[in-house]
Design brief:
6-stranded mixed beta sheet; 5-stranded antiparallel beta sheet; single chain; 14 helices; alpha+beta; elongated
């Protein structure tokens, strides 16, 4: 025998024994019975987020304009314990997605506050007798939502700066050695603000197109971001921005740490370094490379690499200029660094490649370097579970032709030589060294 959950629930909802135990907004009779139009009772500032109360034929429905997890349940529980809850029978909170008849809702009844269930925007709209207002995530604030009332025009509101933008703008007030640093900080702050506004507008477009009832009114969007003065201006001079981030990265000012942490995530393409890389100090290649490191006073970039590690020493690779830290823990000791974008311009050539935590390049002048790589990529090898190590294959191929080239990984899956990719697609023992003649032979296949 098979049970159909929906049929069982519908049977229980119509039975005298279980009728009062069901969820208020899941009562199947609501789909067919006539409903008297409700009315708006006003804005409610709550500890769980801004809310609107609506009087319906069932009682007061409170809509929390937040996607905070558990908000509906917590609000319903709070109201259940409050004798002056003003007749609220159900609390609905936004889920953050689009349901069958509008924005998805999670509901909890004050009679059973620990039972959360999905409610339909279209049903609540029918109960209140008018379109329900909706606000995009970045504008779900009490100062914005409290301005609304039925028939009110769309509110034009400002997206508030987040912590990252605030940090960058505060750092721009520091007296830096050159104006380029200030320009770089303000440019990234403007970029983040523009991205936030673009995301807000995209959210409005998606919910505006798909968030209305299929057979009813379009979604009532209650607020938008103002367009005057936006997007904020950006600096087009790449060289100025790169110079600014070099100044911040090399700074020893305390104020440089937080903006550098943000810059490493959002402006990595403007730094003269590649991706974050971590290798064990015990490997033979890493031990030889360590002889090229010079102890130094930590910069902002060193501090970001160190994060919250306690046992840290700071270095610079004197051949490539990359920042390096040695990080010790109770379990292991590792080198952490940003990979170079290119290797030094010498008369040397690629002698071999060593596969040891990362791709190491051994040169004919008997030096060892971490393989150069561009931000956002990484050099790997092995079977790859269906993926192919075209990044490493293409970098190695470029270095075989010109050791000091500025490597590019654009379209690496198209440019990487098939033979080199196949060679690197195999399982190799830790520390495997591939001599140049092996690489040349693979590349020619």
């Amino acid at each position: 025998m098979r049970w159909d959950g929906g049929s069982v629930y519908e049977w229980a909802a119509h039975s005298s024994r279980f009728r009062e135990r069901g969820a208020v907004l899941l009562d199947p009779s609501l789909d067919t019975q006539a409903v008297a139009p409700g009315k708006w009772l006003g804005f409610q500032p709550t500890s769980h987020g801004p809310a609107m109360d609506w009087e319906t034929g069932l009682g007061v429905v409170r809509i929390l304009h937040t996607t905070r997890f558990g908000a509906a349940c917590a609000m319903a529980e709070e109201l259940a314990e409050d004798a002056g809850s003003q007749g609220v029978i159900t609390v609905c909170a936004l889920y953050g997605d689009i349901g069958f008849s509008g924005p998805a809702l999670i509901a909890a009844d004050t009679a059973q506050p620990h039972l959360e269930y999905e409610a339909q925007w279209g049903l609540v709209t029918r109960l209140v007798g008018q379109p329900l207002p909706w606000w995009p995530h970045a504008l779900r604030r009490s100062d914005v939502i409290s301005q609304w009332s039925p028939g009110a025009p769309v509110t034009l509101a400002e997206v508030l700066p987040d912590e990252k933008e605030t940090t960058l703008r505060q750092a721009a007030t520091v007296r830096w050695p050159d104006d380029a640093a200030t320009t770089a900080l303000l440019d990234l702050a403007n970029s983040l603000r523009n991205q936030d506004i673009a995301s807000l507008n995209q959210e409005i477009r998606i919910f505006g197109e798909h968030g209305g009832h299929p057979d009813g009114d379009p979604l009532l969007i209650a607020a938008r971001h103002r367009t005057e003065g936006y997007p904020l201006p950006r600096t087009e001079d790449h060289d100025v921005l790169a110079a600014g981030w070099r100044t911040i990265a090399s700074s020893q000012l305390f104020e440089a740490y937080e903006p550098m942490e943000i810059g490493l995530h959002y402006a990595a393409h403007l730094l003269p370094f590649g991706p974050h890389t971590e290798v064990h100090t015990r490997g033979p290649a890493a031990r030889r490379w360590a002889q090229q490191l010079t102890p130094c006073t930590p910069t902002a970039l060193h501090a970001v690499l160190a994060d919250d590690a306690q046992d840290v020493t700071f270095y610079t690779d004197r051949t490539t200029g990359i920042p390096v830290i040695r990080k010790a823990s109770s379990r292991d000791i590792t080198w952490v660094f940003l990979a170079p974008l290119r290797l030094p311009d010498t008369d040397a050539h690629l002698k071999s490649v060593i596969l040891e935590d990362t791709v190491w390049i051994r040169t004919t002048d008997d030096r060892i370097h971490p393989g150069p790589c561009t931000p956002g990529e990484h050099l790997w090898w092995g079977p790859g579970g269906g993926d192919r190590p075209t990044e490493a294959a293409w970098v190695i191929s470029q270095l075989m032709d010109d050791l000091s080239t500025q490597v590019s990984l654009d379209d690496h899956w198209h440019h990487a030589p098939a033979g080199l990719t196949k060679l690197l697609n195999r399982t190799h023992a830790y520390g495997t060294e591939l001599p140049r003649h092996v690489l040349e032979h693979a590349r020619s296949q």
